[in-house]
Amino acid sequence: MENPFGGGERMALAFERLRPSTQELELSFAYPYLLDLPFGTELGFHQYRQEEYSNVELQAALQYFLSGSDHLKIFAERSGTTVLEVDTLALQQGRSPEFLDLNRSAFGLGLQLQRLDYRLNPRAGWSLEAEGSGGTKRIRENPAIAAVSETFYDTLQQRSFQIRIRGQLQGFLPLGRRLTLRLALSSGALFSDGGIFRNEQFRLGGNRLLRGFDEQALFATFYTVGTSELRLLLDTNSHLFLFTDLAYLEDRTPARRRFDRPFGLGAGITFDTPAGLFRVSLAVGSRQGSPLDFANPKVHFGYLSLF
């Protein structure tokens, strides 16, 4: 929800049931130019819950506006994981579970720059978003794990320092009055002097990033996704598009070390309605070493409410 009170505010509420046992809730509120000064504030809440674990993240940010919507921000965030189903078989076999209970507290910096001719449906220009944070991660003991292996936590580095970085750069190249080419590069990296577990990783796949795959079905400690999208502008807020998403993923945890090059290909439409902007796309995907899976296409939906 953009500008609900006429002061440039942004409110967002998103709920998704990605799979029968997996759901995600996001809430955020941003208020720019407090008291007509070049400062703003932003608050965010994010919960991701599946059968094995639940993640909760809180973030509070202070923004400094450079001009328009361009701004720097400093933020504090706190996140935690609660394991709901312990992998006792892994413990009995002497392996570390993929999910562990933990808390993380961090501080970070962010930057947003925008030079688009029209933010909602651009034909020309570019934009950049980037943020990085660093802080302390602490592993919490789970009684169910300790009951199976009394010495398990003795072998872990229970407190470690972690850095998390991610960003996106995109540009729009006009090819005619109604035709434009969107090129985008999105990347993220997670570093730690201790182990990185599955519940801490980036989740990719679906409408937001890397189409042609199930929503948030791909996990990575490092990713780079390159997007090429040819758009035919239909009206002020609508367009047809053809796209390719090409990615490189690294998955490094105590339990595994994998590399992948997934690829997505598809088409879709973004269209304007009285309720907001809807996006629908149909895509197929390929993992490293396998062809495009035309027998299992994915349909992705997106929605943005405008006020």
List keywords for this structure.
307 residues; mainly beta; Porin; 2 helices; globular
What is the averaged pLDDT score? Answer: 91
| Proper CATH architecture | Beta Barrel
Overall geometry comes to globular
CATH class: Mainly Beta
Number of DSSP helical runs = 2
Number of domains: 1
Q: Could you tell me the strand content as a percent range? A: over 45%
The percent of residues in helical segments reads: under 10%
CATH topology: Porin
CATH homology superfamily name: membrane protein fhac: a member of the omp85/tpsb transporter family
- What distance lies between the first and last C-alpha atoms, to the nearest angstrom? 6 Å
Give the biggest beta sheet.
Answer: 15 strands, antiparallel
Radius of gyration: 21 Å
Class from helix and strand fractions: mainly beta
Structure description:
This protein has a single domain, classed as Beta Barrel (Porin), CATH 2.40.160.50. It is built from 2 helices and 17 strands. The chain starts with 9 loop residues before the first strand and ends with a strand. The relative contact order is 0.11.
In short:
The protein is mainly beta. The chain is 4% helix and 61% strand.
